[in-house]
């Protein structure tokens, strides 16, 4: 799933009319009561990076997804103190939305996904590995479902994450789907350059951005003063699991998180809440400047605002929260 393109560009063919499906309406798809997730459905070729395991249709546009959150992962690693990585919420939502789009709403394998926005919030002060690893039950409600020629054109999803009957987190996001032909028309020569080498910048020290492995650092020192340059390692097995013609949205999420950590005293920042909007594609061959500012409310809540800029245009804006009640 990618970040959103320029909204002025039409992301889909206009030969078939859009049909807005009511939340209780018929999608036109054959009845499917559930199934098992595959790497193709969640767009993750490595099984270690695939978190949804199976799904069951509960009602029209409502599903139960069983996910498996790792107690250890090469990228979504536990944070200091044995805290589970909250970005697993965002990544599980991303994979779940694509899985259901393919399996329940008829999206062909060759179509491309566009993520416009996503947000999540932890619902528990205890997000340690004992509470947030292993089997996680995810209830998914799809709304604003738009169909074109019996295939999904776009929808909004709301996910509720539970384990052992305990609420862990909630998340929402909106996405749209584009055909391979429409995507090629939209991206043009940039699609042909997918997989081309990208210069690897020297990253900031990993401990400054909450990382142990230098390969996981996505920020580099900026030559323009405040902020950082986006650092792209297209050989990274999780962030760049396959060739891309643009910067994956998960890289931008991680850049927002690392910027928030870099501004925090002693690097202590748990992204207990995150909201991000994608405004246009982040291009691989253009410098991307990441800027952030931190503020603290009278109640002690910490908020960090992050933006990514290419040229004078924002490619994403994000707000991350670290509240004492959840994070400590």
CATH superfamily of the largest domain: Hotdog Thioesterase
| Count of beta strands | 15
What name is given to the CATH topology of the largest domain? Answer: Thiol Ester Dehydrase, Chain A
Give the helix tally. Answer: 6
Tertiary shape: globular
SSE run: EEEHEEHEEEEHHEEHEEEEH
SS-derived structural category:
alpha+beta
Mean pLDDT: 89
Quickly count the domains: 2
Low-pLDDT residue spans? 6-18, 23-31, 324-328
CATH top level of the largest domain is Alpha Beta
Which architecture of the largest domain does the CATH hierarchy give at level 2? Roll
Output the radius of gyration: 19 Å
Strand portion: 35-45%
- Main beta-sheet strand count, sense and barrel state: 15 strands, mixed
Topology, element by element:
Layout: E1 2-3, E2 18-21, E3 34-36, H1 39-42, E4 52-59, E5 62-69, H2 87-105, E6 112-122, E7 134-148, E8 151-163, E9 166-178, H3 180-187, H4 189-192, E10 219-221, E11 228-230, H5 249-262, E12 273-278, E13 289-296, E14 302-310, E15 313-322, H6 324-327
Parallel strand pairs: 1-6
Antiparallel strand pairs: 2-7, 3-4, 4-5, 5-7, 6-9, 6-12, 7-8, 8-9, 10-11, 11-13, 12-15, 13-14, 14-15
Region (Disordered): 1-40
InterPro entries: AfsA-like, AfsA_hotdog_dom, HotDog_dom_sf
Domain A-factor biosynthesis hotdog: 41-176, 209-297
């Amino acid at each position: 799933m990618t970040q959103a393109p320029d909204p002025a560009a039409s992301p889909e063919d206009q030969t078939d009319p859009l049909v807005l499906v009511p939340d209780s309406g018929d999608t036109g798809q054959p009845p499917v009561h559930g199934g098992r997730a595959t790497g193709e459905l969640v767009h993750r070729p490595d099984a270690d990076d695939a978190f949804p395991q199976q799904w069951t249709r509960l009602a029209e546009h409502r599903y139960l997804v069983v996910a498996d959150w790792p107690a250890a992962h090469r990228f979504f690693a536990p944070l200091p103190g044995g805290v589970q990585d909250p970005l697993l919420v965002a990544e599980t939502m991303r994979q779940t939305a694509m899985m259901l789009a393919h399996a329940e709403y008829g999206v062909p394998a060759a179509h491309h996904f566009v993520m416009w926005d996503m947000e999540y919030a932890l619902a528990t002060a205890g997000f340690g590995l004992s509470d947030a690893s292993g089997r996680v039950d995810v209830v998914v409600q799809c709304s604003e479902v738009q169909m074109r020629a019996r295939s999904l054109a776009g929808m909004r999803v709301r996910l509720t994450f539970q384990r052992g009957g305990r609420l862990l987190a909630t998340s929402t996001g909106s996405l749209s789907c584009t055909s391979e032909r429409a995507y090629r028309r939209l991206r043009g020569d940039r699609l042909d350059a997918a997989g081309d080498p990208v210069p690897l910048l020297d990253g900031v020290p990993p401990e400054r951005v909450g990382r142990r492995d230098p390969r996981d650092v996505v920020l580099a020192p900026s030559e323009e003063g405040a902020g950082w340059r986006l650092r792209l390692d297209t050989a990274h097995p999780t962030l760049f699991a396959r060739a891309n013609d643009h910067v994956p949205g998960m890289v931008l999420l991680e850049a927002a998180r690392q910027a928030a950590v870099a501004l925090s005293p002693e690097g202590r920042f748990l992204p207990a809440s995150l909201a991000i909007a994608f405004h246009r594609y982040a291009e691989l061959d253009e410098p991307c400047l990441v800027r952030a500012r931190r503020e603290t409310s009278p109640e002690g809540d910490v908020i960090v605002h992050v933006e990514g800029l290419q040229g004078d245009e924002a490619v994403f804006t994000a707000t991350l929260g670290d509240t004492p009640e959840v994070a400590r």
